[in-house]
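W.,

You were right to be curious about this one. When I first looked at the sequence I had no strong expectations either way, so I just let the prediction run and decided to look at it fresh. Below is the sequence, 342 residues in total, followed by the output.
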Amino acid sequence: MTEETNQFTPNSITEDVGVAPKKRVLLKLVLAVLAFGLLLALLLVWRVISLNQPTLDFPVNQPIIIESGTEVRGIAKLMADNDFVQSEFILYLTLILFHEPKEIKASTYIFEQPLTTREVAVRLTQGDFDSDLVRFTHFEGERATTLAKRASEKLPNFDSANFSLAAEPLEGRLFPETYFVPNDFDDEQLLKLLIDTFDAEIQKVQHLIDKHTLSLEEILVLASIIEREANSAESKKMVSSVLQNRLEIDMPLQADASIEYVLEKPLAELTPEDLEIDSPYNTYLYKGLPPTPIGNPGLEAIMAVLEPSESDYFYYITDEEGEFHFAKTYSEHLRNIDTYLR
């Protein structure tokens, strides 16, 4: 080996010494990033586990309705808004990642104890929602007293008198729907379910109510009349148009349904003498709306008030087959009567 090969230049020493610190810095940086990432992952896992736990105010034995056709995001939002889960997003991910969304069953759900988000998702897709539940339908247009009588026949703990006393002042706000309730449901629980459902449904159309010239109570009164006078979505919108046209010019509504409510007599059995009864519900004698709803309208009738058909009609009749015939003038109305009712 020559002397020349044993010599190291200052530059070569500097390069060898500088490389090691750079590698150490890079290694520390990589380790720091990995540690930070691991910490974030652990925090995320902890957060997901935490959000999966039951809510502090889990609504035990409080029914919630999942309507047919509701999308997964809508179901997740509904459950979160009503405190059945902590996180709308976690429930949504659970349903789409671990379950088949098409298997979600539309119905009334009642949870007997607090459940985790994962357990709620299982209940929504297993279809065990109707075990030990009674199917009860509150029909559109039905009045509180009729509802009370039918409910008492299905629910052993239901007090018809107590329900009627509490419910009659709330006529119009007992939302018509098919409910699934526990066999031991009582009158107070059913009333709360009907009112809570009404509040939830009305919230969906609150923006339309806010823009209407009628108050919510007046909308319910008019909708309750339409519910009894009309027989289809289209006829409800047309009848709504006629009645609102009359209200605008201060013309009596002349709706037989409000007299039927007072006399508790079927429309087909009303006589000319019945139309002369002195009652604020007699819309032949008194202009404007009756003092209260005459039954409990469904959302279709309420929407008919909020979004009526556009027309110049002020009169209508229904023939023996249930078909409606509308008229702009009284003389045209009389011709319809001669043509379709005689």
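Here's what jumped out at me. The first helix runs from residue 10 to 52. And, maybe more interesting for your project: Confidence is low (pLDDT under 50) at residues 1-5.

Coffee later to discuss?

I.
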